[in-house]
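Comment thread on ticket #2218

A.B. wrote:
> Attaching the input chain for the structure job we discussed in standup.
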Amino acid sequence: MATGSGLDAQFGFVAESVVGTAVTVTKFIEFISEDIKESPTWLEPTALRVGRKYKRAGRVVKSRTTIEGSLTFEVSSRGIGLLVARMLGSAATPVQIASTSAYKQIHVPGDHRGKSLTVQVGRPEPGTGTVVPFTYRGMKIKSWELSVSDGEVAQLKIDFDGMAGTNATALATASFVTAEVFNFRQATLKLGGTPATASGELAVTGGTAAATIIKKISIKGETPLATERFGLGNAGIKSEPLENGTPTVTGSLEAEFGKTELYDVYQAGTTTAVQLTLTGSAIPSGGGATDLFDIILPACKLKEASPTVEGPDLVMMKTDVEAYDNEADAPIQIKIVSADTAL
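C.D. wrote:
> Ran it. Output below, let me know if you need it in another format.
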């Protein structure tokens, strides 16, 4: 029975073969919230006409259309590989581990050109209980942020920029795979060590698990896109947004004051590797492999580390991190191990 509330909402997505050409969504994700919307530019001619002081409705039209907004969801063990690929511009495909049911995805930065999504949001109408489909095409991910906080489930927020939307596409039937969600107790953070890439996979040897008590970590990626590619003859619909600036990956740690582990590294300006690993349950028939979501930043600088005394409580310190290119390895690698056989 329909509730007419957000309990009936759904979010689906699929890769587009041609940027801006909508495809029926086939993948669905459990999500926390979304705020994707159409943002038109209105043309309102104001030429003077005797006897008419107000702007005339018959002359007001939509000139341009863009789609923008965000999606926040819990980081699950299955079904998010395609979103991660679009976050980085990755061309990764799942590779079977030995002859087991476990598959590995290695995502590193690549070109974003030609890589887009069709997204459909089902929004329930309270008055009727009808779930109204909002379908958006030509969707690119321009920024994302992963956060893991004390006592919380890991969350990922992604920001979209798209080309056009419609309510005319039928609501797709949602289906889901069984998956667990990663949480704070499954997270480990290692600092330092020696990064190296072999057979296309980055690994860090000699990293040390953080001894400082860290309450929260967030990692954010931003890909500057030319989102104003409107021109004559395109009927107010933008052309594919293309990269037009230097991408960045930054992070922050909210932790107790740790002089040797964090502050001294900041003070010395040392380049250090950072590795955040979320380790889940064993994959059935996976040959001992477990669900895994792992991020490596091989060459980071601690850009700010400020311990502050705010009364009698423990001294805390916020540490800001930025990832750089060490000219040998990918500036960021996201590794997923799961039972997903395809993105």
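A.B. wrote:
> Thanks. Noting for the ticket: The first helix runs from residue 81 to 88.
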